[in-house]
Amino acid sequence: MRRALVIGHGSIGRRHVQVLQTLGFTVSVVSRRGEAAGYETFGSAEQALAARSFDYVVVATETATHLPALVALARAGYTGAVMVEKPLLETSQQMPEAAFASAGVGYNLRFHPVVMALREALQGCAVEMASFHVGQWLGDWRPDRDVAQSYSATRAGGGGVLRDLSHELDLANWLFGPWRRVAALGGKLGSVTVDADDGWGILLACPRCPVVTIQLNCLDRVARRTITVHAEGKTWHADLIAATLEHGGTTQAFSTERDDTFMAMHRALMNGGGDVCSFDEGLRVVALIDAVERASVEQVWIGSAAA
């Protein structure tokens, strides 16, 4: 019997619970909201690890509490697989020493069939420009909750679109190589959040693409998630919501269900990692988030320390 522990039982935690059950795990939960109906529930990771042995742990708490959860796992001597929801950390910090069998960050859009097809199509191409756009009105993210009560609306919980929608930052690195320098404008532009950032325009230089633009926001009344790439006189347009990839006058449609990318990501990590975002890659995204905020405040280009 395979056992999994999901730390955090908010909306994303509940989703991981359902996916892991579908994959055949017996799932326990760590929740500060009290007992999770239908699941063995613990008040802390320490209590859970003292009571049971787990093969797989998912950290699905607010971003600001990811590091304490990882520290708790390391101190308890946990050596199984670990998946941490994105972004890995709120800001760049020292990671704890741990002996996890495998570890990854929950950038499940790497496993979207449109993204995978785009990545394969671009192999060997000299890419000239790329643009990412993601946006959806914050009130539509979790329609069953008051926006002001959502951690996404406040800075204290590690919310804000730069972190909540950091999939695009990871995909830029994954598709075009580790970012080299960045300029940005953005922050809290509208009134949808309490005090968290709600919109950004980002300009990146990457090894495989000299010009990458990323626009992300929680202001779009019409949900949108697209990637457009120009290379060698050709253009690819990926629509992750419609699940289509346009190229050369033709449109390829893909079939994908709501939890398919999550299941593929979990399977890959359980099998050793594969295309799952590693902790090192996750830290690179965190460093990029830090650089974006600094670039906007100082109105300068920020270079990557790893470049």
Instruction: Count up the domains.
Output: 2
Radius of gyration: 19 Å
- CATH second-level architecture of the largest domain: 2-Layer Sandwich
How many beta strands in the DSSP annotation?
A: 15
What is the number of helical segments per DSSP (H or I, 4+ residues)?
8
Tell me the strand percentage band.
25-35%
Quaternary status of these chains?
A: single chain
Give the overall shape. Answer: globular
Question: Stretches where pLDDT falls below 50 for ≥5 residues?
Answer: none
Q: Looking at CATH, which topology of the largest domain would you report?
A: Dihydrodipicolinate Reductase, domain 2
Please give the order of strands in the largest beta sheet: 14-13-12-11-7-10-9-8-15
Mean pLDDT: 93
What does this structure look like?
- This protein has 307 residues and is α/β, with parallel strands linked by helices.
- It has 2 domains: 3-100, Rossmann fold, CATH 3.40.50.720; 109-254 and 278-303, Dihydrodipicolinate Reductase, domain 2 (2-Layer Sandwich), CATH 3.30.360.
- It contains 8 helices and 15 strands.
- A 9-stranded mixed sheet has the order 14-13-12-11-7-10-9-8-15. It has a 6-stranded parallel sheet with strand order 3-2-1-4-5-6, sandwiched between helices.
- The protein is globular.
- The mean pLDDT is 93.
